[in-house]
Specification:
With about 1250 residues, this protein is an alpha+beta fold. It contains 45 helices and 34 strands. Helix 8 crosses helix 9, helix 14 runs antiparallel to helix 29 and helix 18 crosses helix 25. This is Phosphoinositide 3-kinase family, accessory domain protein.
Length: about 1250
């Protein structure tokens, strides 16, 4: 093992000496060579060929250009071909010091495919061979891969057909968003829209002219472009007259004098970026950039550019040259940027760009008809997918033999056979059905069998996280004989098993205490199995379960019951234990689950009869309503006789096997009341009050009954009650299920976004296992709530929720993408509507959705239970994103380089040595190649230029983050944004920061849409892997600590005026002043600066209070030069406070020090609060500014409380993420408390006022903490 560790380190980016490698030539000769590790593969091949010429059989070799190198990847243990010949030997991720010389594919199609697969593997972090192996062994993986690739191929074809303008729009179109209420108020007051523009008359910077134009508030891009081109023509005429004495004139000047330019040949560009305004008919104020400028008090800065220049610039960014052959480009120069197909696409775009356009294209690519067809494919219903899979439609296979009806079968029976311990995880490597993952055999696993004790197996049937029936446990078996052969009979009919049920199995070791005599349970492993496979066929026969380790159990309940229903249904590729079970099937034919239409048809059949004393049919009709049945439906599984037999038995109140249904606990259908479709709802007030509850509210049994009785009222009047109604459904009773599915068919759609999100990830968290008694376990537990994946498990409900998200804009979807990715973990099958929806939207809009989607998946690809699911989505996204793959490959390479440099820097203890080593590393040629001239991972429209080594630094934080500075290569960067600054962190989990910043962004949207702009600064943050990521450095900002350090009295927390004095430096001066601000050349008006500070301080006071953000000190509170205060570093949320020597340091609900109040009071350091603030308007300070601040805080708090459901929903959906401070529903109780969800408005306002007073009067404790922080730094 030590040798393997050294070997892995030897072949890494850290090597900077010589390297010994064995080269295996195609002629059978093995040549050991010692080479300089700085040599590229192309140079190494030259050295190799010189030595090979002296060896036998050299003549049988072909020219060296026909060969490439391959080796064993140290991460995946698979053979990897290295197509990029510019890679240094030090950069090869080799497991062993061998390189195989293999012949490159001569067939152009095969070569293209191999190169693309290599690029995709590099981007996704999962080997192509692993994916292929998994698809060969697991039919569901094969089916899902076919479905995803069909979507990706359609999108790739659409990109190829879109032409150069379509590609430019795809990769450079700027984002749009609906105008908020607060911005609309500002626009109404403005009267005119002022835009700054740069007119570029030629490539000479001396011909750049800045103009300022005033446009109407509703001016479109077309209007602005027309006006700017008119000014450009006027300037050209002026320049022509000035140069009229010259003997020769440029062709461009002559042309400008003849006629004004064609508006259709131009685009508006956002200055200093690679983003363009493509939608000519859209109002300028609909673009996020323009909105941000107006909210910050800046003029939007735009520039007219030729469409042709945009396309040519994009091709240069892709690094593709049509004049260079593929072989020369990829093998000699070694700058291969992407799959070979991109070269052909580039040639096509080049030819179309050079000549005039011969066809009309849609201005908005994403609204064109091919995208509508792509969307239709992504929205394929669940039942249609099953039907296609069952028939083998896409796989070219024959479907299974005729299926039997599930409704004709008896009870569920599972036989537990045996368990086996695998001494080596690699024992099953030849038969594993999932890719290789970092999961290793537990060191303690080998000692489990040797330990004293016996073993049992526990089996349960679940629907999501809800228990359907009491779980069963086998008898004890000694560790020397893990064979049970025990049949576990469950009192639930197969006909009552819901479509998305899953079997949950756990292997448990029992240890009897020698003294107490109590038996203690130790979980060994667990596995989950969908009761119906992806074809809709019931699992039956022998099943081998590869158990996951018990360490993946997340919540208290799961550790208590040893079952993990919220866990994955995929197999563990490297298990310590395997378990054999057998699911009994009473028939030989496959058993298919009923489709949604089958349930509706069965309910329709029951609705055609009436109940009463006359007939069974008559009695049934009075408990139901008559639905509308679509004509022409053919039931492929159940015929009419089957349905009639089912309902004969139901009306007799008897089971299909002749037993009484009343004897079966699963047939408790007391919620089926005699309330018909037309009956009045007598509990309307209770229902209306119930739907106002937060999504974490736990329904009582009485409330569930009331909901079910009022289901028709909810259908017509309260469609937002659907999430609660799903909790009142008896999922283990097919009678209730039939009626519920019929209601679902009629439910008004689309659902609102909060309701759809609740269904996907925030309902059922408090669903108690009412059937299973906790008394069966001997150990004691707390009242911890269930964690893990959440949401309604039913596939048809989830399909309705996803369909309701198709209408939302990309900007709105981007706000919730973090949670939707977590909701993927709750999906029962690899191919599902949510996966296809997110994949479709990510492919359609890479700037707002695609890039974020890629990194959200990429950052969790190391999780063994999610690796395959996320890997399939990443592969399809990379496959269908076309030229975007080039950018993604560059970003992944750059981040790997930064991770390596960070590890090298941390080897040094002295700060000066770290800084020197860091600058030395980024000055290397290979580092400059990887880190320069690439699109920023934070935003594709920001192109990072050269590294400014002198400004790059290592920060003093514990994890030694790297401060990186690039030049902005844009022509106008010198005027606005000359540099880009990012922080790379290695060793910190940034996902909690990402969640907090996203919630701040959502709060900002809520406030703005309600008419309040709180001037928040939710800066960018991106997790790129386990404990690695990037943070956006906010420009022109300083920490409060850095500001206070300028004066000793302020650092000692004695002088409270230093912050105010620092801010007033940036108040607008006269044009002759010496201000050198980058945001505002002439500074900021005094009133606006104080207003920005006051609003932002109020916003963060409320936000940090609601979210329980702790560890607030002057080094993680910052202020920028336009007056906005903002918080950074969110390592402690949900009221998790830091302690020192067992004492809690923070004793106030939020930070409101005298420094802040002095600024709010316009520099009055003597202002005091006076009497406590009350909700009746009494008390408070006599200072009018402080009074307004208190009112602003209260108003912002009440607006958040109004939207408490969406905030709690977003937090609840993050439970599967595994964040250390968000593992169970109990962790969310703090937010429920701070939002006062159980109080009315007056009580909630009084509650907040009490917290405001507590923060103000306790500010002295904060100052003491800050003084201690200054002493420690």
């Amino acid at each position: 093992m030590p040798q393997a560790a050294n070997l892995k380190r030897t072949f890494s980016l850290l090597l900077d000496s010589t390297v010994k490698l064995d080269f295996l030539l195609p002629n059978g000769i093995i040549l050991p060579l010692e080479l300089d590790s700085d040599l590229s593969l192309y140079e190494a091949k030259d050295e190799l060929w010189l030595m090979a010429a002296k060896q036998p059989l050299f003549r049988v070799l072909q020219p060296k250009e026909h060969y490439i190198f391959s080796g064993i990847n140290s991460e995946t243990a698979d053979t990897e071909e290295f197509y990029d010949q510019s890679l240094r030997l030090r950069e090869l991720p080799l497991l062993l010091p061998y390189l195989l010389v293999t012949e490159a594919a001569r067939d152009s199609t095969l070569l293209e495919e191999n190169m693309q697969n290599s690029a995709i593997s590099n981007c996704t972090g999962i080997s192509h061979d692993d994916i292929v192996r998994a698809s060969e062994l697991n039919p569901e993986v094969k089916w899902t891969r076919v479905r995803f690739h069909r979507l990706a191929n359609m999108h790739r074809k659409l990109l190829q057909d879109s032409g150069p303008s379509g590609l430019a729009q795809y990769l450079t179109a700027t984002a749009q968003r609906a105008v908020s209420r607060s911005l609309q108020v500002m626009l109404d007051q403005m009267g005119a829209l002022t835009v700054s523009a740069w007119i570029l008359d030629s490539k000479d910077q001396t011909n750049e002219s800045k103009v300022v134009v005033e446009l109407g508030i509703g001016a479109t891009v077309q209007d602005a472009l027309t006006r700017l081109l008119e000014l450009q023509t006027e300037l050209a005429d002026i320049n022509y007259k000035r140069r009229s004495t010259c003997s020769q004139l440029t062709m461009r000047s002559d042309w400008n004098c003849v006629k004004p330019p064609d508006v259709s040949a131009y685009l508006l560009k956002i200055c200093c970026s690679q983003a363009y305004l493509f939608d000519m008919s859209a109002p300028l104020v609909s673009f996020e950039y323009v909105q941000q400028c107006l909210e910050e008090g800046r003029h939007p800065c735009l520039s007219p550019v030729l469409r042709k220049d945009v396309c040519e610039n994009l091709v240069r960014c892709l690094g593709i040259s049509s004049s260079t052959s593929i072989e020369e480009k990829s093998y000699r120069n070694g700058t291969l940027s992407g799959p070979r197909g991109l070269f052909r696409m580039r040639d096509k775009w080049k030819s179309e760009t050079d000549g005039p356009s011969t066809r009309k294209r849609d201005d908005v690519l994403r609204d064109c008809s091919p995208y509508k067809q792509l969307e239709k494919l992504a929205q394929t219903p669940h039942d249609q997918i099953e039907q296609d899979a069952l028939s083998g439609k896409d796989l070219g296979e024959l479907g299974p033999e005729p299926v039997s009806s599930l409704w004709q079968l008896g009870y569920l029976c599972v036989e537990v056979r045996s368990a086996k311990f695998l001494a080596e995880a690699a024992y099953l490597s030849a038969t594993q059905s999932t890719p290789s993952t970092p999961v290793l055999a537990s060191p303690a696993a080998a000692s489990l069998l040797a330990a004293a004790g016996s073993y049992v197996v526990r089996v349960g049937l679940f629907h999501g996280s809800q228990t359907l029936i009491e779980s069963k446990t086998t008898m004890q078996m000694p560790s020397t004989h893990l064979t049970w052969n025990k049949a576990l009979n469950f009192r639930i009919r197969l006909a009552d098993v819901p479509p998305t049920a899953r079997l949950c199995v756990a292997l448990i070791r029992l240890d009897e205490g020698s003294r107490s005599g109590n038996t203690t349970e130790y979980p060994v492993g667990w596995a989950n199995l969908n009761f119906f496979n992806y074809l809709g066929i019931m699992r039956s026969g022998e099943v081998t379960l590869r158990l996951w380790p018990a360490s993946l159990l997340q919540s208290t309940d799961e550790r208590f019951s040893r079952l993990h229903p919220a866990g994955t249904v995929l197999e563990n590729p490297n298990p310590d234990f395997v378990l054999q079970i057998r699911i009994h099937s009473p028939v030989k034919n496959p058993i298919r689950r009923p489709t949604l239409q089958s349930y509706i048809d069965a309910y329709s059949l029951s609705a055609t009869t009436v109940t009463g004393s006359l007939t069974k049919s008559e009695r049934l009709a009075q408990t139901s309503h008559t639905p509308v049945i679509s004509a022409g439906f053919i039931n492929h599984v159940f015929d009419t006789d089957d349905l009639e037999d089912v309902y004969d038995s139901l009306l007799d109140n008897r089971g299909l096997d002749g037993s009484s249904a009343n004897d079966d606990p699963t047939h408790n259908i007391n919620r089926s009341s005699n309330v018909s479709n037309d009956d009045p709802c007598y509990n309307e007030p209770a229902l209306r009050e119930l739907v106002t509850r937060d999504p974490l509210y736990e329904l009582s049994e009485q409330e569930k009954t009331e909901l079910w009785q009022g289901r028709f009222f909810c259908l017509k009047q309260l469609p937002e009650a659907l999430p609660f109604l799903t909790q009142s459904v008896c999922w283990h009773c097919r009678v209730n299920l039939m009626e519920f599915y019929d209601l679902l068919r009629q439910w008004p759609r689309p659902l609102s976004v909060p309701v759809a999100l609740q269904l996907l990830g925030a309902m059922g968290l408090n669903a108690s296992a009412s059937i299973e008694s906790a008394a069966m376990f001997s150990s004691t537990t707390g009242n911890g709530q269930r964690g893990g994946a959440s949401g309604v498990a039913d596939a048809y409900v989830r399909e309705l929720a996803v369909d309701s998200l198709y209408h939302i804009t990309d900007s709105e979807l981007a706000d919730y993408l973090l949670q939707l990715v977590q909701a993927l973990k709750a999906e029962a099958y690899l191919d599902n509507t949510l996966s296809r929806f997110i994949l479709f939207r990510a492919l359609r809009n890479p700037l707002q959705i695609g890039l974020q989607f890629f990194w959200l998946l990429r950052s969790e690809i190391h999780l063994p239970d999610m690796r395959l699911k996320f890997g399939l989505l990443l592969e399809a996204f990379c496959h269908g994103s076309g030229p975007l793959l080039t950018f993604l490959a560059r970003q992944v390479t750059a981040l790997k380089r930064l991770e390596t440099i960070s590890a090298r820097v941390k080897e040094y203890g002295n700060e000066d040595e770290q800084r020197a080593q860091f600058r030395k590393e980024i000055s290397r040629a290979e580092a400059r190649r990887d880190l320069q001239w690439l699109p920023s991972p934070m935003c594709l429209s920001q192109r990072l230029g050269k590294l400014v080594v002198s400004k790059c630094d290592v920060k003093r934080s514990k994890k030694r983050p790297l401060w990186l500075v690039w030049t902005n290569p844009d022509r106008l960067a010198i005027h606005h944004l000359s540099q880009y600054q990012l922080i790379f962190k290695h060793g910190d989990d940034l996902r909690q920061d990402i969640l907090t910043l996203q919630l701040l962004r959502v709060m900002d949207r809520i406030w703005k849409n309600e008419g309040m702009d709180m001037c928040l600064v939710p800066y960018g943050c991106l997790a790129t892997g386990p404990e690695t990521g990037l943070i956006q450095a906010v420009r022109d900002a300083k920490t409060v600590m850095a500001i206070q350090r300028e004066r000793l009295r302020a650092a000692l927390q004695i002088d409270n005026t230093q912050l105010f004095k620092w801010l007033t430096r940036y108040v607008r001066k006269s044009p002759s002043g010496s201000s050198t601000l980058t945001n505002h050349d002439l500074g900021v008006p005094y009133d606006r600066l104080i207003q920005n500070f006051t609003r932002s301080c109020a916003g963060y006071c409320v936000a940090t209070f609601v979210l329980g953000i702790r560890d607030r000190h002057p080094d993680n509170i910052m202020v920028d030069t336009i007056g906005r205060l903002f918080h950074i570093d969110f390592g402690h949320i949900l009221d998790n406070r830091k302690k020192k020597f067992g004492i809690t340091r923070e004793r106030v609900p939020f930070v409101l020090t005298k420094d802040f109040i002095t600024v709010i009071a316009h520099g009055n350091a003597d202002v005091v609060l006076g009497a406590p603030v009350t909700d009746t308007g009494g008390g408070g300070s006599r200072d009018i500014h402080l009074q307004k601040f208190a009112q602003l805080c209260a108003g912002a708090y009440m607006l958040l409380r109004k939207h408490a459901n969406i905030l709690l929903t977003l937090l609840a959906m993050m439970l599967p993420s595994g964040l250390p401070e968000l593992t169970s529903v109990c962790d969310l109780e703090h937010v429920r408390k701070t939002l006062a969800v159980e109080m009315d408005d007056s009580q909630a306002l009084a509650y907040f006022h009490s917290k405001f007073n507590e923060a103000y009067y306790g500010a002295w404790t904060t100052k003491i903490d800050w003084f201690g922080h200054w002493m420690n730094t």
